[in-house]
Amino acid sequence: MTRLLDVTDLRVAYGAVVAVDNVSLTIDEGEIVGLIGPNGAGKSSFIDALTGAIPNRGGSVVFEGGSLDRLASHSIARRGLMRTFQSVELFDDLTVRENLQVAAEQPTLLSMLADLVRPSKPKGVDDIAWASTLCDLDDALDRFPSELSHGQRKLAGVARALAKRPRLVLMDEPAAGLDTDESIAFGQRLRSLPGHGVSVLLVDHDMELVLGVCDRIYVIDFGSVIASGTPDEIRKNDRVIEAYLGGHDVKA
Ligand SMILES: Nc1ncnc2c1ncn2[C@@H]1O[C@H](COP(=O)(O)OP(=O)(O)O)[C@@H](O)[C@H]1O
Ligand SMILES: [Mg+2]
């Protein structure tokens, strides 16, 4: 197994509130890793810190062998680490295709200079087709976000992250608001990603989804890891049952 992501003692504080308290986590190439915990446990802050949105975090993050410490968000994205947002942030006045194009293109200074010398075909066309097919959005490409179902909008948020052909996608509650059938279909799509060279960190409250698709799961509470292991180990873990599920057994 090749190590893709190595997070050591990640720490995020908002003033006196410590949202992420020295969390260490690894993801190997081809893995789907879950991160679960109650509301306010620090999951979104963890993702924010990994993608450069919280510059003054503590700890170290190594991605594909290179340090991400002190890199700005756009540099982190360019290295192949993308995220989705808890609230889908699509551009409402752009079609789904255009939303994906904006994500796929993001020109660098070098590519803009190269285009001046020798204009190229629109970039990212193949990547957009690939991402939209993976997310079952081919029929929705020319529609506007307001014309989509909630489930399709969530998928468009995922497709937008995929359109940059990332090595790792951090997904913040991608299945929130999906019905059971949509969630099962989404899980199947997730499982296909490692075959396309994309690994996943999945944050979600849908326990059937997380326990069903993840290779390993980390559980955090009050900013700290309280358990980690395979879905079977997590299902049986007393601290998880107590802290996360209020004493109820984890079904699924
Ligand atoms: N921008 C912020 N400013 C101050 N406190 C915040 C901010 N964002 C999150 N928090 C606090 O940090 C903790 C973790 O929040 P968050 O990372 O959103 O948790 P989760 O995603 O697991 O629900 C919570 O106590 C939350 O109130
Ligand atoms: Mg959150």
Structure explained in plain terms:
With 252 residues, the chain is an alpha/beta fold. It folds into two domains: 1-80 and 166-252, P-loop containing nucleotide triphosphate hydrolases (Rossmann fold); 90-163, no CATH class. Helix content is 35%, strand content 25%. It has ten helices and ten strands. It has helices spanning 43-50, 73-78, 96-105, 109-117, 125-134, 150-162, 180-192, 207-213, 231-236, 238-243, and strands at 3-14, 17-28, 32-36, 58-63, 66-67, 81-83, 168-172, 199-203, 216-221, 224-229. The strands form two sheets. It has a six-stranded mixed β-sheet, with helices on both faces. A four-stranded antiparallel β-sheet has the order 2-1-4-5, with helices on one face. Helix 3 (96-105) crosses helix 5 and helix 5 packs across helix 6. The longest helix has 13 residues, at 150-162. It is globular and about 55 Å long. The two termini are 28 Å apart. Bound molecules: adenosine-5'-diphosphate (ADP) and magnesium ion. Adenosine-5'-diphosphate is lined by residues 14, 17, 19, 37, 39-45.
